[in-house]
Amino acid sequence: MSIKPQLSRFDLTMIVVSLVIGMGIFKTPGAVALKAGNEYLFFGTWIFGGIVSLCGALTFAEIGARYPNAGGFYKTLSYCYHPALAFMVEWVLALANIASIAAVALIGSEYINPILMPASLQNDTGIKIVTVSCVLILYVVNFIGIKMSARVQNVLTIFKVAMIILLCTAVFQHDVPPTAIPVISLKGNPIQAFGLCLIPVFFTYTGYALTINFGADIVNAKRNIPKAIFTGMGIVIALYLAINFAYYKVLGFGGLQQSNVLAAKMAEVVFGVWGYKITSLLMFLSVLAYVNVYIMSNPRVFYAMAEDGVLPKIFERVNPKTQVQEFCMTVYVAAILLLLFAGGSFSSLLNYTMFFNTIGLILGASAIFILHKKTKQLDTKDIFTIKWYPLVPLVFIASYLFVTISIFADDPKASLVCLGGFAVGLVIYFAATASRRKQLGQHNDQ
Prior knowledge:
Helix content: over 70%
Distance between the termini: 36 Å
CATH class: Mainly Alpha
Mean pLDDT: 77
Structural class: mainly alpha
Low-confidence stretches: none
CATH architecture: Up-down Bundle
Number of strands: 0
Order of helices and strands: HHHHHHHHHHHHHHHH
Largest sheet: none
Number of helices: 16
Number of domains: 1
CATH topology: Amino acid/polyamine transporter I
Radius of gyration: 22 Å
Strand content: under 5%
């Protein structure tokens, strides 16, 4: 049965905004400012990152329009390349999500650590203790059952909305003088600094690739998809620039560089010490909401892989009473904790996340060139096609390739670990397919 378009231009605009805006904007501007060394490179990187992300959203929207399916990346890459490569990309994107959750959990712990922990644990060890404790608490909550998890998610989401409203009131405080913290100037190569700035910027802009799932769902696709994506990404870029300007205006560029808890510091300058504490608490709860929803939903990726026979059947087990994928979720949470201990800092976890993401997104975006050849017959139909093809996907691919090289140069160890993750994915795929062929052979012999 064919997909009947039902989503309006406004629907897709809101989807794009909600896919992109997450928790990174409350942490990564400090890392970008530190690497940039001056406000011109800082704001220029955010603008450039938004433009590249717009190119990515348009590229994946056309991929989704040309090859609509319920499997997203996996089905598309199987069709364009090979099922082994498709599994490998899906596998590393799942690993990227695990690294991303670990990184975001650290963001929340950095906000709440000064409030919860004694002075002796106001350090990386204290932050890691809080992070691990929170992940384990959410694991227990999700283990109880999906209804309990959903109720916790609803409460945490309310706190997240309250935190955003509080920050918005801080933005409009025009009479706040910037704090006089010295600026750490750029000392290295500007091109190298630009590449390093793009790592946290692209992390903050990520999410738009999921437009691949909506290419066939939009009414009047040729007209509405580009307008919705331009509008949605325009809103995101405007919001990111606005909140970055608020950080810069309230904290000064030096304060922006040297704060791990930007939102709380800004609230402290505007509202005093209670503003700092309340914002830290709300930020921590909003991070819990993010981590909780991923623990609740992402193990389903492994479930789908098990259904396809590329992971052991144990990953398909679901508790009939609680509807919890107990084994899947346990493995998923164990992987998060392992990365927290092995990865260490937010910066290193960010490198793991983005190396996985850049390779996966480069391969995903490159599929558009193959689809153009395989689906030429669709060019005359009312589907969305990129106006500036092939320039738009080439800009996206080249930019992400530049970031991949920047990560490798900055952190070779993380890059090699990630390449090992790709290799493990291939080994799992070929081992699973060999096992499946053996089982089919035994069944046929009987």
